[in-house]
Amino acid sequence: MSRMPRKKLAATARSLSGVARRNPGLAIAALLPVLLLLVFFFILPLMQLLQLSMLARQPTLQQPAPGYSIANYARIFQDSFYLQMTATSIMLGVCTTFATVVIAYPVAYYITRISGWERTLISVACLLPIFVNVIVSILGWYILLLPFGVIQQALAALGMVSGPVQLLRTFPALVAVLTYEHLPFAVLILVSSLQAIPTDKINAARLLGASVPRIVRSIIIPLTMPGLVASVILVFSLSTSSYLAPILIGAQRIPVLPLSIFSYGTELQNWPLAAALAFVLLVLVVAISYAFSRAMNRISRRGEWEMV
Amino acid sequence: MLGLRIFVYLVVALMLLPILITFPVALNAMPRISFPPAGLSPRWFLSILSDQVLLGSIVRSFWLALAAAIVAVAISLPCAFAIQRGKFRGREFLEMLITSPRMIPQIVLVLALLVYFESLGLAEKFVGLVLAHLVITIPFAFRTLLVSVATMDRRLEWSSAVLGANALQTFLRIMAPQIKTGLIASFIFTFILSFNNVTLALFLSGIGQRTLPVEMFTRMNVAGMTPVIPAISFVLALVGVMLFVILDRTIGVYRYLVGRE
Amino acid sequence: MQSLSIEPLTVQATSEPILRFESVSKAFQGKIVLSDLTLEMRHGEFLTLLGPSGCGKTTSLNLVAGLIQPDAGTIFLRGQPANQLPPRRRGLGLVFQSWALFPHLNVFDNIAYGLKVRSVPAKEIDGRVGDMLDVVRLPGVAEMFPSQLSGGMQQRVALARALVTRPDLLLLDEPLSNLDAALRKEMQIELRRIHSELRVSTLLVTHSQEEALVMSDRIAVMRSGRIECIGTPHLVYNRPPTRFVCTFVGEANILECEVEAVAQGEATLRRGALRFAIEAPPDVCVGQRLAAAIRPENVVMAPWPATTEAAGTAAVVLDAVFKGSNISYWVAVGDERLHVLTLPPLEGHAFAPGDRVRVTLPKNRIILLERGNEPHA
């Protein structure tokens, strides 16, 4: 019996995982269009925007290259107007997220326990805002919220109000519309998450004598934590950055960052300030999402969740 | 469960209400947005057909969405293959990069593109709008296609190879049929995403070049609204619902919209 | 390491082997799966690679098919080096464990696939597919889709698909694992029949020793990327060279013994209270330690007290389990435990726990294992 030389064994062991080396050029060619597109129309514009935010003032024909400064950011953080607006944006996001998740969770749970046409019907209703244009949704709410509109008439019929009630341009109304808009996202994620819970775990708990609230608290919620976190992060970032509902429903009464970004970006033509506000929004959303994710991480010790 | 059931159906009713309300409002005989409508008349539904501006915007929306969907799917598919099957390092990073446009607020992106396009001379051009739509639809198309590619059974390809087929034959006869459903789903969802997008179009399209949602928005916000807007809204809603039902019964909506999680 | 080949000397291959591994090595992600594997397979034979999971048998199969490349060494197909040859030019048939039928094609199109990609004329395809369906005994399913077929039927379709191109080498990767027990037995016989009817060289990979014994012309027992022994089923079962092969293929009582005496070509081995005789191997000496084995069905058990020609060793029955076609006993010989299998008695009762018996280990049934040969566990 001859033994294989030690060296040869070691060399064999060191060889790479053995799949035939494909043509690497093929992979590059496959990735190129997408990567080029993203570099030129995503990364570059963002970097340019960042640079823009650090210009002292709007470039004009007379002064095409003003100097750099962080005056814009300073202005944002010092002016109480902007601070107020930031706080309002965050508040809006938090309220919307809370309402959305609280509604979406039981609905998602119900969806996973039924099938057939009932499931399609409920899914249609809940996913409507994605399939039907968001303008349509807002229009519908607009009509409902009009003074002497449907909601007011219903409230009057119940004897709760008399005289015209201003529902439009209120904070609760805006939260309602944003919740409506973003419910589908939360439902989608939560359905997927809840569906993954195997029923045998729940049955085991029932056999052991656990009550329904107990099962929900100790089994279902922990197992769907990743989905909950993902939907919270998604809804928060979408609603805080939302533009259409605030402008159509809230109008100028509820100042939020996106509105300001746009008015400076278009009407008022102060791009550096608009850019600065945009980055403040971006950092805000990313930071809060990350912090939330980390906090949840620590509470239930489960490793990283994806930021959707 | 009963309490839950009631709650869910309440939610369903509230979800349907804003859409349903457009119908009676659109039937208003008077050019006013009011409920209950003052007199019933189908004139606004009919007037859609003669509203050239509105029709033009519908056509524009359609072509924009079609172009965006075709290109997005076409260039995302090879990308999905490369990421799923490639053996190079940094795949995860690339995957994150490709899906990152979805993670930033759309406004920030729009502002960035607005400024960028101005400097390139692309502002208010159709091409610019298509490119912008591509940036936000590609992450989505890529993600759903990745699911499709990931669930392919490689042993089918190996069997095909051992049976004597070359790479092209294996791709056409064995691989393509497997991802067919995923491709169609990806295309349709991308189309819808693009068609419904307002924010991008709002700031990147020219005055005479509005897409449908933008046209609707302008009339709601600025120009003054007649019941033709609720009318077209209702029509859009019907189309959306029908599309959803068809998709859910054939492809299964949840699987494709949620992706790999 | 040379594989231990124990076939009788008369059967030497004079024709070229259809498949040959020459010092083939393969590693995945730093872990060695095959190391210096050398193997020859003759035309027309049914060779089985038998071994536990992780021993490298499926990797070997994939190497033959060309789906992966060896890190070192060469694979020869029909005498020609084949390392660089792509799978589609190797002229093989392959059936996966999961059968891998194309779900979007019906049975006919699945089977015809190999012919279609070679542009065989349609009429000929019809004929050959029909013939193949007859060979695998599946008439009438041509229009159905794989999802509509049972496991057994899917497997026959997979076989038909692999064989319709008339390959001279058929590769089977654990084809019977997804079938239930009854179907498995049936398919073992079917595979054997198809093999002899079509005279196609067949390489089977399995972890089931029963399949290997039933179907093979030769069995190669693999372990940790190496072939421990190769030979006919009869020889692998009755004369296993190593402890691993002895216990992997069939059951055995392993006895670490000491040579007590040597006389007239016979050596007496002793293990505790157990004494038995074997043919004295060359250069045996008193006091030497040897490992011997005997299969449970070969231990002779008789009641105690002994008759005049008392032979055998005293033992006590510990446990008796009636298994239908046989009875499984555990007996204690002193401190030693022996597993014994007997047929149910024609008359009287079987032994019961507590009974005293005598056990005999027939000389020609003792298996002598390689001395001190215990490769890493």
If you had to describe this structure to a student in words, what would you say it looks like?
The complex is a heterotrimer of chains A (308), B (261) and C (377). Chain A has helices spanning 6-14, 24-53, 71-78, 80-112, 116-131, 134-145, 150-157, 171-195, 199-207, 212-223, 225-240, 244-250, 257-267, 271-300. Mean pLDDT of chain A is 81; it is low at 6-21 and 303-308. Chain A starts with 5 loop residues before the first helix and ends in an 8-residue tail after the last helix. The longest helix of chain A has 33 residues, at 80-112. Helix content of chain A is 73%, strand content 0%. Chain A has 14 helices and no strands. Chain A has a domain at 80-115 and 168-300: MetI-like (MetI-like fold, Orthogonal Bundle), CATH 1.10.3720. Chain A is globular. In chain A, helix 2 crosses helix 14, helix 6 (134-145) packs parallel to helix 12 (244-250) and helix 8 (171-195) packs antiparallel against helix 12 (244-250). Helix content of chain B is 77%, strand content 0%. Chain B has helices at 2-20, 22-26, 43-50, 52-85, 91-99, 106-120, 126-150, 154-162, 167-196, 199-204, 212-223, 228-250, 253-258. Chain B starts with a helix and ends with a helix. Chain C is of the alpha+beta class. Chain C folds into two domains: 4-248, Rossmann fold, CATH 3.40.50.300; 253-368, Beta Barrel (OB fold (Dihydrolipoamide Acetyltransferase, E2P)). In chain C, 22% of the residues lie in helices and 34% in strands. Chain C has eight helices and 21 strands. Chain C has helices at residues 57-65, 107-116, 122-135, 151-163, 181-198, 209-215, 233-238, 243-248; strands spanning 4-5, 19-28, 31-41, 46-50, 72-77, 80-81, 92-95, 169-173, 201-206, 218-223, 226-231, 253-263, 266-271, 274-279, 289-294, 300-303, 313-322, 327-333, 336-342, 356-360, 367-368. The relative contact order of chain C is 0.12. The model of chain C is unreliable at 5-14 and 372-377 (pLDDT under 50).
